[in-house]
Amino acid sequence: MFTQWNSGQDEQFDIAVPNNNLVPNFIEADLIEPLNRDIVTAYGDMYDKFQNLAETQFSADGAVHGVPVRFGWYGYAYDTRSVPDHEPSYSIMFEEDYVDADLDGEIIMYDEANKTMPVTALYMGFEEALEGDRMTFSTDQIQQMRDRLIEQKPRLQGYISSDPTFIQEFQQGNFLVGHSGRNEIIEMRDQGADWVEYVVPQEGAMAWYETAVVSSASENKDAAWEVVNEFIAPDNGAALAKAGFSPSVNPAISEELSSEENSLYGSIDPSRLDGMIPFKAISSDVEEEYESAWEAVKSA
């Protein structure tokens, strides 16, 4: 969507809903409007976490330029029929004796640098490099992550490219532990897979959140902001949560959902949001090294 808007198609749309890591690109290209708080009255009803994230990640010239809508996060899932209970940690993916189970060839990671590299960084204690509006790994840290991922490869069943493939492969028993988004596991449980357990590791979890933005080229800016406000209103927020197995940023959706629905994608205890780190782009000064490291991992 950013490429389309940046090539002149922004006049054709009033609203886009990109993932949070892409919004800074829209801001830097001067494609989107500052938030109209007089119209988006539900903004103050969001979890404090998402108000703070928006004001940190989407701020320019003293104004916020996007409204979070739905969110999710990436931890890992495991098959409880073969993997014993344990303290949730990414160590399970990298260390042979972390649990009393043979996991060689039984682990899945994502075939995407911006999902797998940050997980490796958290495991290796490089969380400070994930704190700003960009990932700021040093060249040495990138090389260490590369080497650790290459060392890990014999433990992998493989890298996986899409969420539907993850679900299918997991249900077929092709792996026992998989780096995954929460949404996929909620969908599996909704389909009756009561043997799957999803955990957030003690090191933290990378998180995404869809963000509604309004085009600066729109001739219907006020109406667009009214639609954005409806995205996070309790009734529509609940409908969007059901449709995507993803919680709304507005905890008031819980009043619109059943007890079972709330347990799957309803309101979240705010304390659970503290360990979530939003996905973000890599700093441009190490982007080439970062991409080269990932290619080295894949080709090893």
Short overview:
The chain is an alpha/beta fold and 300 residues long.
Ends apart, CA distance between termini = 33 Å
Low-confidence stretches: none
Rg on CA atoms, Å: 20 Å
Q: What sort of overall outline do the alpha carbons produce when their principal axes are compared?
A: globular
Provide the β-strand percentage band: 15-25%
What is the ordering of alpha helices and beta strands? HEHHEEEHEHHEHEHEEHHHEH
Q: How does the major sheet shape up?
A: 8 strands, mixed
What is the CATH superfamily classification of the largest domain?
Periplasmic binding protein-like II
Tally of structural domains = 2
Number of DSSP strands? 10
CATH class of the largest domain: Alpha Beta
- Helix and strand content put the structural class at alpha/beta
Mean of the pLDDT scores?
93
Description:
With 300 residues, this protein is α/β, with parallel strands linked by helices. The protein folds into 2 domains: 2-70 and 207-267, D-Maltodextrin-Binding Protein, domain 2 (3-Layer(aba) Sandwich); 73-204 and 280-299, D-Maltodextrin-Binding Protein, domain 2, CATH 3.40.190. It is 37% helix and 17% strand. It contains 12 helices and 10 strands. The strands form 2 sheets. Strands 1, 4, 5, 6, 7, 8, 9 and 10 form an 8-stranded mixed beta sheet that branches. A two-stranded antiparallel ribbon has the order 2-3. β2 (59-60) and β3 (63-64) form a beta hairpin. α6 (139-152) packs parallel to α12. The longest helix has 14 residues, at 139-152. It is globular and about 60 Å long. The two termini are 33 Å apart. The mean pLDDT is 93.
